[in-house]
From TrEMBL:
It comes from Rhamnella rubrinervis. It holds the Pfam family Adaptin_N. It comes from the Eukaryota. Keywords: Membrane, Protein transport, Transport. Adaptor protein complexes are heterotetramers composed of two large adaptins (beta-type subunit and alpha-type or delta-type or epsilon-type or gamma-type subunit), a medium adaptin (mu-type subunit) and a small adaptin (sigma-type subunit). This is Beta-adaptin-like protein. The keyword Cytoplasm does not apply. Residues 721-838 form the Beta-adaptin appendage C-terminal subdomain domain. It is found in: Endomembrane system. Residues 1-17 have a biased composition (Low complexity). SMART domains: B2-adapt-app_C (SM01020).
């Protein structure tokens, strides 16, 4: 982990080389402060530009604050603007400097030029210094009564700023009542819109929970106020119209006649050129008619044309935003948009994110009448140069098939995909064929005939390989070479990095064994032995489960692993109807674009914190330790580093008494296991079930070609490892050691459900590990992946242990890499670390 390089600022004409230039600026500004000579304002402009330039690139020019204020005594509005910008930047962090600006800002608030009055009032309210609020009340009161609409507009927003600084001062000055009066009586629509926006924020904030605030909120949503705004809506700007429409969407009409009145008033807003206004109007229409089923459907028909027009016009970003809302409506009422499916065809020049959304919509609108045309179009996309879009198009074809539309033709298309000489097309098609066979087992003969010609060596993607293996196991009686293909895959067990594939391989070879035992007997023994020695806990547990099942009763094992199956009728939906309804309630917001309710990306527990430990602060993680965090359902690509030998695993696991039974080992050319790995992987109690006598373990070992395990010699327990509870290691030393030391151990642990729940606050893990004398030097990440760097030291010497721990909360797995000064103590420390981690959230 290399420390962050120190940034070196290159010299440039617009950048001072030292404090001397700032001092020169200060003296020049002081000379021009009271000058009224011709050209003085031009000279001030140049100096002001330099000051603003330095301030923009992060150079501290607060030392010229007094001179800038003195030079602001001018009628040049450009100088005023630059001075206000400078004052607003430094006044927030330095209240003492802000106090110097009060006099000249209050003076400018009374200037003859309304532009200067407005700018000065805006700057005065932007100081946001709590002890200066008393100076804001007078100028704001004058601004709200100003004859110029620009000043009134600024003053209204200034009242809102004052409310956030000191709500009591704002209410005591009776500013909300003044805003309400302006909102209903001012002739300028921008002032009215600002008043509405400010009052909505004031009365909806958490600090106003009184009965008066509740009454005011009801007043804003009363019929006279809502109708007042709707009757004037054409006078407002687009931004103001959106505010008014948002208010109208919250209004609850007393009867159906009001609903139709409002819709008639807003009918022409659906033809507005601004997409935000159209979407806001659509939200009003949809929410007003939710309780009127027939009218609600007619609203869908009415809003269809404006939305499709917006999609085809404007920037790709606007098209995507409108398409996201259209997608939500299509998912709720696909039959209404089924005749307009051609609008969702992809254009060659559209960005990928727009194409992907259109593919989802094509899938949603497919029905008996248009499936052929849609599938034909999607098949054209399968040859697209944009590989992600080609993949999505194949998935879309499969989704349509799962909806039971024109299955015959679609299966033929998918089988044609399998014959294409493109790896990604074959991979996606295999996954879809597997799903189709689960729902339509009657198509197995045609599909298996094509799948049998695919070489497993040409399928590299984990999901596709897992699908192929599933079919080899499920239909092994129809595929002549199935046992031999599975056997070749088992021979390359150690080269298979995906745990998903290894899990499917175990299950497939078990199924094949029950259908074709003589040909699969040897392969099953090799698979179980390799699975028992596998580092991945799930793979190991499944292999152990299958072995014990076979040992108990082969007939029972067959009923468990390969029972009669019924076709899958419905696949699980990724989103619940409750979440979809919540997104619909938040129509015309980011929730629709993100396709999740707002609380999922605004609340901290869903957003996922990204924090650094207090000990380190801002550690720079080097290239080696900043590897991409793997998803929970995959094992990282270099999982050979994570493999432990059987002997190492035995050291970490204590003996289990009560009738010890040792899992078998396997010594054959099929699976390369060393002699040391022929020892028991886990000590297991032999199951005893009343009424069923377990078969001889030696008999099942002999059946599967497994060697008889030799008795393991007792290993003397090493002395317990003690850690220094007050260990200290500075970040630079940690980085240096991390670069120099090799990886001693790489392991994967299972995190308890309580621990996963406690990780909503990652700092809790840091405190927990510290109680076990394991200290955190850096932490980061966001849900579901968190990365931590820990260190520990031996109590009796200065030998250190460095740990990288990656925790995936969705899979409840923790992957660790341990580096140590004393390599011989790595295993003992790993046991301590695993014990401490297992107790997280439990104790």
């Amino acid at each position: 982990m290399a420390p962050p390089a120190q940034s070196q600022r290159s010299s440039s004409p617009s950048q001072p080389s030292g404090k001397g230039e700032v001092s020169d600026l200060k003296s020049q500004l002081r000379q021009l402060a009271g000058s009224r000579a011709p050209g003085a304002d031009d000279s001030k402009r140049e100096l002001f530009k330099k000051v603003i330039s330095y301030m923009t690139i992060g150079i501290d020019v607060s030392s010229v604050f007094g001179e800038m204020v003195m030079c602001s005594a001018t009628s040049d509005i450009v100088l005023k603007k630059m001075c206000y910008l400078y004052v607003g930047n430094y006044a927030k962090g330095n209240p003492d400097l802000a106090l110097l600006t009060i006099n000249f800002l209050q003076r400018d608030c009374k200037d003859e030029d309304p532009m200067i009055r407005g700018l000065a009032l805006r700057s005065l309210c932007s100081l946001r210094v709590a002890n200066l609020v008393e100076y804001l009340v007078g100028p704001l009161g004058s601004g709200l009564k100003d004859s110029n609409s620009y000043v009134r507009t600024v003053a209204v927003i200034g009242v809102l700023k004052l409310y956030h600084i000191s709500a009591s001062t704002c209410v005591d000055a009776d500013f909300p009542a003044t805003l309400k009066h302006l909102m209903l009586n001012d002739s300028d629509t921008q002032v009215v819109a600002n008043c509405l926006s400010a009052l909505q924020e004031i009365w909806s904030s958490g600090t106003t929970t009184s009965e008066e605030a509740s009454r005011e909120r009801e007043t804003l949503l009363s019929k006279p106020v809502v109708y007042y705004f709707l009757n004037r809506i054409k006078e407002f700007s687009e931004w103001a119209q959106c505010i008014v429409l948002e208010l109208a969407a919250k209004y609850v009409p007393s009867d159906n006649s009001e609903i139709f009145d409002i819709m008639n008033l807003l009918e022409d807003r659906l033809q507005h050129a601004n997409g935000a206004v159209v979407l806001a109007t659509i939200k009003v229409f949809l929410h007003l008619t939710l309780s009127m089923t027939d009218v609600h459907q007619q609203v869908y028909e009415r809003i269809k044309a404006p939305l499709l027009t917006l999609v085809s016009s404007g920037s790709p970003e606007q098209s995507y935003a409108v398409l996201s809302h259209l997608h939500l409506l299509v998912m709720r009422a696909p039959f209404i948009f089924s005749s307009d499916y051609k609008h969702f065809y992809c254009q060659y020049n559209e960005p990928s994110y727009v194409k992907k959304l259109k593919l989802e919509m094509l899938t949603a609108v497919a029905n008996e009448s248009n499936t052929y045309e849609i599938v034909t179009e999607l098949c054209e996309y399968a040859a697209n140069v944009d590989i992600p879009i080609a993949r999505e198009s194949i998935r879309a074809v499969g989704k349509i098939a799962l909806q039971q539309y024109d299955v015959n033709a679609i299966v033929d298309r998918l089988l044609q995909f399998l014959e294409m000489e493109k790896d990604y097309v074959t991979a996606e098609a295999l996954v879809l064929v597997k799903d189709l066979l689960r729902k339509y087992p009657q198509w197995s003969h045609d599909c298996i005939a094509v799948v049998g010609n695919i070489s497993s060596k040409n399928v590299q993607e984990p999901k596709a390989k897992a699908a192929l293996i599933w079919m080899l196991g499920e239909y092994s009686q129809d595929m002549q070479d199935a046992p031999y293909i599975l056997e070749s895959l088992i021979e390359n067990w150690d080269d298979e990095h995906s745990a998903e594939v290894r899990l499917h391989l175990l299950t497939a070879v078990m199924k094949c064994f029950f259908k074709r035992p003589p040909e699969t007997q040897r392969a099953l023994g090799a698979a179980l032995a390799a699975g028992l020695a596998d580092f991945h806990q799930d793979v190991h547990d499944r292999a152990l489960f299958y072995y014990r099942l076979l040992q108990y009763n082969v007939t029972v094992a067959e009923r468990v692993v390969n029972p009669p199956k019924q076709a899958v009728s419905v696949f699980a939906d990724t989103q619940s109807s409750e979440i979809k309804d919540r997104i619909f309630d938040e129509f015309n917001s980011l929730s629709v674009v993100y396709q999740k309710p707002s609380y999922m990306f605004t609340d901290k527990e869903h957003r996922g914190p990204f924090e650094f430990s207090d000990e380190l602060g801002n550690l720079s993680i080097g290239a080696e330790s900043s590897d991409t965090v793997v998803p929970g359902h995959r094992v990282e690509a270099n999982d050979k580093d994570l493999l432990l030998s059987t002997a190492e695993k035995e050291e970490t696991r204590g003996p289990i008494n009560n009738g010890v039974y040792s899992a078998p080992s396997y010594d054959s050319s099929l699976v390369s296991l060393s002699a040391s790995q022929s020892q028991p992987d886990v000590a297991i109690s032999s199951p005893t079930i009343p009424g069923h006598a377990p078969q001889s373990s030696l008999a099942i070992d002999d059946l599967l070609g497994l060697g008889v395990p030799a008795a393991a010699a007792p290993v003397p327990s090493p002395p317990p490892l003690k850690l220094n509870s007050k260990a200290v290691l500075d970040p630079s030393t940690f980085q240096q050691k991390w670069r120099q030391l090799p990886i001693s151990l790489s392991q994967e642990y299972t995190v308890s459900p309580q621990g996963v729940g406690a990780l909503t606050t990652p700092q809790a893990l840091l405190r927990h590990m510290q109680t076990h004398s394991i200290h955190c030097i850096a932490s980061g990440g966001q849900s579901p992946n968190f990365k931590f760097f820990f260190f520990a030291q031996k109590a009796e010497e200065s030998s250190s242990f460095l740990i990288e721990c990656i925790i995936n909360t969705s899979s409840a797995k923790a992957q660790t890499k341990i580096k140590a000064d004393d390599q011989s103590a790595s295993q003992a420390f790993s046991s301590l670390f695993q014990t401490a981690l297992s107790k997280f959230g439990v104790l």
